Request: fold
Amino acid sequence: MIAQLSQDKCVKLNERIYMESGGKMAEIKYWREENRTYLKDVIPLDTPYNIGIEVSSLCNTRCVYCAHSQRDHGVYEGNMTMELFKRIVEEIHRFPRKIRLIETYSFG
Ligand code: SF4
Reply:
């Protein structure tokens, strides 16, 4: 089924929306996953979706908008010990499900 959504640019075809641009048709898709899980439906979580591990807070760049650009920013700078990192990894394995994303950076 084809439905004209506006006078000139958009059409709806089989529940999908297409837009004409430069003589070509492009499907308009939601930027979010259509099958996403809403947090309100699953909390409290037994396993977090993602985890951030700041293995180092050192940075030799001085971006003006960042605390690192201040000479005395008061933020601890250093590297995580391998012992602590291994302990964190062991604890992550205790979650009943897999973590979707583990980021090993933050402030450094
Ligand atoms: S931590 Fe990131 S934002 Fe801050 S100075 Fe370093 S690169 Fe720039």
